[in-house]
# Entry
Amino acid sequence: MKRTFEEAYSNIFSEAPNILSYILIIVILIDTIIKRTLLYIIFFLIFYAFFFFVGRRLWTRTTVFKVTSFALGLGALFDLLLGRPPLHYLLISSVIASSMSMSLHCRDGVYLAPVVLTPLYYLYVGDYPLAAVAAAYAVSMPLLRKYLAGRVKGSDALCMFSSFLYSSVSAEGMFDHVFKPLGVKDLGKIHLYLIEGRHLVVVSDFHPGPFRNVGGGILVEKLVARGLRGGYDVVFIHGVGGHERDPVSSDDVERIVSEVFRAASSMQAVDVLRGIRPRRIEVGDVRLTSYSLGVGPPLAIVSRVNSASDDVPLDVAQRVDPRGYVMVDAQNKFDGPLRWDDDDVASLQRALDDASRAEGCRDFKIGIGRADSSLVDPLRLELGAGGVAAVVTDCDGQKSLLLIFDGNNMDGSFYRELRDRLSGAYALVEAITTDTHASTGMGVGGGGYRVVGSGIRREELLKLVNRAVAAAESSLGARRGAYRVLEIEADVFGPNFAKIRSVVESYKRLGALAVVYLILAPLLFASLL
# Structure
């Protein structure tokens, strides 16, 4: 097993265009003033009207503004830097505009409008060579689509690449339609733990991926946001399964979220909490931490000793007897090989067997707290909407701590630092992540995303931890709770995720061709002609 998906994706996707979209509007205004022309304003309105038309059902006006600024601003930037006449680099703007609109309109051909109309402008200003090149783009873009579709099996590759480009500029109105045909219906379990009628712990077998703003990539954010509106503090925990359990579209995510809160609204936190004593068990290369929330089945948090702690595969979970536990993917060790062989499965079963002999608590208390990370990580490059949550339990006077970071995996040294710092105050300390893919593609160096502890200063992360723990400690008490398990039907990728993986792996070979065609070649032609 390799992280090919994340590594390839990181080569395509970055945050830079999103930031540039704000800078480039200033460039457009500077060009307008220096060159004493209204052409940039006129074409800004034309591009805005075009994007408003193609994205009118999905894109907000903010999104239309951002993509307009990015597309037209790139051309304006080169006009400014290279001292060319107004809109000399319109070709690169029109190609980018066609590409981003392609993310929504691959089939009906409206995406070609910018490159079809651009030759008319060049003819109007008497630039015949660039008019010929622009006309060639209008003809060649559909041909390139057809060529790449034949080389990259399972997807319209150029449309998907265009969707990646668009989504790096704006996070809204992503390209669900690209993936909907790949969806297969599946029943996924979601375990709900309601503590004191306010804290809602959601353990989901639906995977919060595959990447930012696509289907399950918005799952955690939607749950947290809906919870805030409904008076619930939602703590998301990822169960078992990997990308085969990714909800395909935002519609499927909405269905899951609606079912969760429909069930939560009918739950009554009346059961007195009675937990079991937390334990950490290591068998072979498997580390299992049993952790009770005082109601319903306790959690069996699965991580690894030497291997990377990644998704607990669905077939692995189906080969073991959970012994009354709800299995949880810890996703808290990024380094090491990715593997689950027969010995690992046997080790997991022995760990679950051992955990089943846990002692009950005569006196059990629980407290849940959260720290908002928006000031520390405003762009959500490393931590998502869930921030940092802490669950403190007290079993017969012995305290334990579970930390949940809304991120995707964890730097091993940060994990060890957390345990070293907090083990003096707690008999057991465990730290996990939600495995959210809300920031996938933000990584540098081929990671595909930034794992928790790799980007944000450790001091800032530890402050968040301290705030979450303090909030949990302040609410620590003998609480009441309720538990319910749901089975929700939604369209997920299932075995079709292999097609997505194949597509992304192909981009490592063919992505450079798309970059040259869409960005570098228009720049070169406009510079030489």
Q: What stands out?
A: The chain has a mean pLDDT of 87. The two ends are 48 Å apart (CA to CA).
